[in-house]
Specification:
Length: 146
């Protein structure tokens, strides 16, 4: 039967050869495990980088959706403000139309001699102009059409 113990035997050459063989095997194991550790470390670095990139994309996506939600809320607030302004403008326009309608409903004095009664001519011209302002400025119907 063969002796499997590399250190067995009394021969110094055999003992030195056994130590060399053990050293070679340990060196091969060390190199192999060093390569394995390097490969594992490289793999972990790759996984960490990819994981970081995925996390970064997720954060950007969440920020984008958050900003989109905020933008929609801002747009809704702006639209509500614009609608409120339109309602207020329509109310003010109706008030102006009523005021200009009342002014146009007033009858100027009858025409007279412009040389003797310049105030009457002035009031008639003022009446015409006020009627035109109502039509031009706020798009009201002139008094003659009411």
């Amino acid at each position: 039967m063969m002796n499997l113990d590399p250190l067995a035997g009394d021969d110094p050459e055999t003992l030195a050869d056994a130590f060399d063989r053990v050293a070679v095997r340990l060196d091969k194991l060390a190199k192999r495990s060093r390569r394995d550790r390097q490969m594992i470390a490289a793999g972990l670095v790759v996984v960490a980088v990819v994981g970081g990139l995925v996390a970064w994309v997720i954060v950007l996506t969440l920020q984008s959706s958050s900003q989109t939600t905020e933008l929609k809320a801002d747009q809704a607030a702006i639209a509500a403000g614009v609608a409120q302004q339109h309602r207020q403008a329509a109310t003010e326009e109706r008030k102006l139309c009523v005021s200009f309608g009342k002014l146009a409903a007033l009858k100027p004095p009858a025409a007279g001699d412009p040389a003797r009664e310049p105030a009457k001519v002035f009031l008639q011209g003022l009446h015409v102009r006020l009627d035109e302002i109502g039509a031009d400025v706020v798009d009201c119907k002139p008094a003659s059409g009411q």
